[in-house]
Amino acid sequence: MNIETAASQMESLGSPTRLRIYRTLVRAGLDGLAVGALQQKVDIPASTLSHHCRKLIEAGLVTQERQGTTLICRANYKAMSSLIGYLADECCADGRAEEAATTED
């Protein structure tokens, strides 16, 4: 993963609404959620959900698949793992882990 991709994905998760949508999809597992069910869970208008889903899709964190008349949203777990890996790959490379953990408190 390059820094531009990581920055784009983190930016898309910087919105509390998008983060809530994404976490809901992550919790849903591989089956994902129909847009209507996702809308009920996050309790936002359909147009707002559509806008935020588009941003998550553009960042590569969410996918959508049409099944008949139903649109299914899924978290892209490969992208999530790549982002987490990118953030953790060099954890404490220049210092000790204990010091890093205590400086954030």
Automatic annotation (TrEMBL):
Stretches assigned to coiled coil: none
Keyword Transcription regulation: yes
Lineage, top ranks: Bacteria, Pseudomonadati, Pseudomonadota, Alphaproteobacteria, Hyphomicrobiales
UniProt KW keywords: DNA-binding, Transcription, Transcription regulation
Xref: SUPFAM superfamilies: Winged helix' DNA-binding domain
SMART domains: HTH_ARSR
InterPro entries in UniProt: ArsR-like_HTH, HTH_ArsR_DNA-bd_dom, Metal_resp_trans_reg, WH-like_DNA-bd_sf, WH_DNA-bd_sf
Keyword Transcription regulation: yes
Domain of life: Bacteria
Pfam family, one: HTH_20
GO molecular function: DNA binding; DNA-binding transcription factor activity
HTH arsR-type domain ranges (all copies): 1-95
Name of this protein: ArsR family transcriptional regulator
PROSITE patterns documented for this protein: HTH_ARSR_2
